[in-house]
Amino acid sequence: MSEGDRPPYFTQENRTTVNSTISKRAFLQAVGAAAGVGAVHRGMEALGLGRTGTAAAAPPGLPPGSGAGKSVAILGAGIAGMTAAHELSKAGYRCTVLEAADRAGGRNLTVRAGDRIEEFDNRQRVGFAEGGHLYANLGPARIPYHHRTILGYCKEFGVELEVFTNDNRAALYHHRERFGGRAVTARRAIADIRGYVAELLAKAASAASLDGALTADDRKRVLEMLADYGDLDDERLYRGSARGGYRGARVNAGLKPGAPDDPLDFGELLRSGFWRHAPRTADSLNQNPTLLQPVGGMDAIAGAFERRVGRLIRRGSIVEEIRRTGSGVRVVHRSARTGARAALEADFAVCTIPAPVLKDIAADFAPQTRAAIAASAFGGAVKIAFQTRRRFWEDDLAIYGGISWTDQDIAQIWYPPYGYHRDKGVILGAYIWGEKPGLRFQAMGPEARLKAAIAEGGRVHPGYAAEIEAGVSRAWGNVPFQKGAWPAADEAPEALQRPDGPVHFAGDQTSALSGWQEGAALSAQAAVAAIGRRVGRGARDG
Question: What is the rounded distance in angstroms from the CA atom of residue 147 to the CA atom of residue 145?
């Protein structure tokens, strides 16, 4: 940030002039520096910038009957496709949803005992025991509190929600080359990181070079704040904190006061990269507490949509061509069961087919649309879930929900925030999204994936292998009609955010929330609203 962009510092001397001249941008920068991105989001709403809450939660609201006599072909029965079908059919449009797979939901996938899941070169049977808490979300698994659109549908459909524990200070941080390869608790690492940073800032705040930036009163307040933030001693030094627990791996002081653990080595902490984990992740807007999940599995949302639009879905209908017919569209599709080809003609289409699949479908798209589709590469995320004979993370480590981090390819281990104190549990033993590890695990067969994930998990939890009874994996790059998890690019192509003739595009790939169900639902609502405007204009012109 240049000197000209730096927000002014609020002192008593300049407060009167600053109050009248500070820009909204400078104010938000100051808020972000002090309180994090979540406060910036709320500040934007307070200033009238980016009001996403109420507006995003409101469905398109097409007038009842406004679509009478009009037909829409919806390509794909994921969250976006079913959202479009739900909203359009309420307004009287005649909708037909073509879904290539034998199930609706797209990447919304929850697996339970006896389920079968397919990839290009393998089929897995889920070997979990029967039990309402023994399931794994192998697609989306959490909903941020501000994803008001998807939460709005949960409310409308009566989908019961519970808290998803994303950040748990009892969870573990692990690095193969730091701290002897042993995992340390998040509470200890975070307390020590805060302490060391506070000590360094206290030294900087005490330096004479800051006399021009801080008044005497400001300096006093800053030092008081840093002492409290980092739990510094009277000399403003960090010597450890009870926030991280007590010696002897004790969490509580017990009947007698305990002695805080010695602080972890600062150099090791820096080199471990632990500061990249929960402290930073929880500040990212889509990881801010509180996060939510449907009770009993994420597919409760897909199921709620399907109960409303299931009659419109033709499963096993593989789209092979998308052609224009004057002002309308003709979609040629093939039956996955019989191979028979058929054609569906409609006034409009809402295409939610993932770009890696769509690029191989013959279509009359404009050159810029074809280029955007061809350029939309998807990442190959992999999830691996294990059923365990006992909930060892609760019994041995008092971990109730949350995520442990490791520098290994498995990246994360998730502990279920439900089914507490049951005999068995299902943990997510790996959530892999980096390109190299993702491709490595994607190339493995199912058994090899489980074996590799167990070996890496054993470095985080010694004795891990003995606890595991069954496992299942999902490599989204190997899934027919998906070929990936979410777009690798940070921004959706503009060409897919506008219609190409009668074809409108939807899906998280066309939104700024790729990889989130919110992006899928928002994009579908945008497509529905655009079709409604076109039909409305046509009615007025006629």
Answer: 6
